[in-house]
From TrEMBL:
Keyword set, alphabetical order: Cell cycle, Cell division, Cytoplasm, Cytoskeleton, Mitosis, Nucleus, Phosphoprotein, Repeat, TPR repeat, Ubl conjugation pathway
Stated family: Belongs to the APC5 family.
SUPFAM superfamilies: TPR-like
Protein's cellular compartments: Cytoplasm, Cytoskeleton, Spindle; Nucleus
One Gene Ontology CC term in the entry: anaphase-promoting complex
Function: Component of the anaphase promoting complex/cyclosome (APC/C), a cell cycle-regulated E3 ubiquitin ligase that controls progression through mitosis and the G1 phase of the cell cycle. The APC/C complex acts by mediating ubiquitination and subsequent degradation of target proteins: it mainly mediates the formation of 'Lys-11'-linked polyubiquitin chains and, to a lower extent, the formation of 'Lys-48'- and 'Lys-63'-linked polyubiquitin chains. The APC/C complex catalyzes assembly of branched 'Lys-11'-/'Lys-48'-linked branched ubiquitin chains on target proteins.
InterPro entries: Apc5, Apc5_dom, Apc5_N, TPR-like_helical_dom_sf, TPR_rpt
Anaphase-promoting complex subunit 5 N-terminal domain mapped to chain residues: 30-167
GO BP terms in the entry: anaphase-promoting complex-dependent catabolic process; cell division; positive regulation of mitotic metaphase/anaphase transition; protein K11-linked ubiquitination
PANTHER family linked to this entry: ANAPHASE-PROMOTING COMPLEX SUBUNIT 5
Record flagged with keyword Cell cycle: yes
Protein name: Anaphase-promoting complex subunit 5
All copies of domain Anaphase-promoting complex subunit, residue ranges: 254-353
Amino acid sequence: MASVHESLYFNPMLTNGVVHANVFGVRDWVTPHKMALLVLLSELGRAGAQLGLLERRRLNRLLLPLLQGPDMALSRLRKAIEECCPHLAGSVHIRLKLMAEGELKDMEQFFDDLSDSFSGTEPEVHKTSVVGLFLRHMILAYNKLSFSQVYKLYTALQQYFQKDEKKDGADESEMELTNPEELDGKMEKEELDGPLREEEIACSGPLSQKQAEYFLSQQASLLKNDETKALTPAFLQKELNNLLKFNPDFAEAHYLSYLNSLRVQDVFSSTHSLLHYFDRLILTGAESKSNGDEGYGRSLRYAALNLAALHCRFGHYQQAELALQEAIRIAQESNDHVCLQHCLSWLYILEQKIFDSCVLLEHSVNKSLHFGLPYLASLGIQSLVQQRAFAGKAANKLMDALKDSDLLHWKHSLSELIDISIAQKTAIWRLYGRSTMALQQAQTLLSMNSLEAVNVGVQQNNTESFAVVLCHLAELHAEQGYFAAASEILKHLKERFPPNSQHAQLWMLFDQKIQFERAMNDGRYHVADSLVAGITALNSIEGVYRKAIVLKAQNQMSEAHKLLQKLLIHCQKIKNTEMVISVLLSIAELYWRSSCHTIALPVLLQALALAREYSLQYLASETVLNLAFSQLILGIPEQALNILHMAIEPVLAHGAVLDKGCAMFLVAKCQVASAASYTPQKKIEALESAILNLNEAKAYFAKVDCKEQLRDVLYFQARLFHTLGKTQERNKCAMLFRQLHQELPAHGVPLINAFK
């Protein structure tokens, strides 16, 4: 089940997606790129009514990122303008050419003419508009330049234009040497490229305040909402180092460096950047200006809180506790209730690693509601629901609690928490074995639109919640035998969450588990054994359990039993009830294979008691099937049939295809065993009914390509057809059995001693 506390990290840099940075002495300066933008604005004003409504709308949408973003090559700028209005792109190019190939006085005249945009009763540009402020900043920055600086700017403009001319000449030469088909393919590839490549976003020099703010806010927003569209960790760190080289005291750049280090799980760099962020924040006095005398103390307590969260994330619980105690002490001295509530939430997380306690969490929820902190209150409710789910509370009570949490989400438009709540419901239904309900919740989340306003082209749903839901969806499809669909979902997950992203471990684990199950179904135990190492690296408990399953399948009973006993003790210690029941079922199967049928019964009864105590309906049904099998091999098939009717309905409704096949195969075995005491006519009817159930089981096994179970079904069917005197059907089953028997190794285990 997904953790719901990832969002508790306090992020002082982000306020509605905007980075607040005021440490730059120079707000803006004139560059050749900005002069090209000034030419674009001038030509846009001249065009006036000649431009169509659609073209003007496209240009207006293009202007804002151009004005805020970093400088780009002239060819890239021309291409962007051509996509909106080809005629205007030509005018801008001609105007820049005249200025670059003319004299210095042409540039002087251009800046003098810019002031005319504000003159008249109906000026072309309003002074307080976005474009007006940009023009005024550029005019002011140009007027402050000395003569030598003006000359350097003019030289830079000439180089900027000449570089574009050389690139165009090289492209034309290449076009002449390239055949049309290759050229079309190349152009098509360029059109499919993203809007900005990394080398074009690169900060070639010191950025102005606005450019730095835009760059940091854009990357921080992408890291939160759509990590795949953010710069790669290495390239982003390079740009941040370049930014800090020109201004080492830029606190927000240190914080973005901290977030970037978290992406690659670099504990040293993330700690280093986090401490630098709060050091610079205190030294520059940014907090004191915005929060008065409290600014210094506020930075200290949130520094300690973030440090505690960082240590907790990397599993350093002792260091996290010390940092948290420091944050609590400073927050209590300052009477900061908001910080104290964050500390209380993290205190619950740390204590949860030692013992289960709902007292802190309930207190945190009540206090958060009292101080008007719906975000923390909702996270507390969802954590409480998660804990109660593991404690075996009824599903209807948990859903009622989540409904109350959803009311808070919709009331305060907490889009991220709405996603977490639905992912939580999906995981709870999976835990309780209701795959149909889990599928419904997963589809609900995938079809939802985000409530948060994000940039065009940015997907809001690249969060942990969507990763969890898509992983569950892939597993559900694999369980039903739709392996192609599961592969498509996993392929989509790999594209959306690349291996270096923070949520990639989720799909990696599910991918390995699905491959393991397919290899086991196909009888390729050596392949399954090779996958165990990958599963263990991602989840040690799952890896050990699957290693024991492989050993059991290879008839290494003593080694499997030792491993399962160690795993059972560990899972009981950490209170992983779901795994405890699975281990008990595997141990019972080991006893069957060793002909210790009576010893398996107490183990199964213990598993059934746990499953019912913790409301794990599907595991309870599976345990009942195992009990029915025990009764069958102990010689009481009538009783086995009676209890099968209690358990088979949930399995057929919510179970995996393999479990459905095993259940129908078991029903057929019980019917055949019970028919021994029937009258001849009734016996024939029972055997024909068993054959129908075997056909259904065979269809299920064929769907998941489970050849070993399919071989057993065919053998059983051939024996039944022989008893009924149906020679043709018997021969057909015998032929299919022989084909599979030659393909698969024979383990020498009697057919009746294996349930699954």
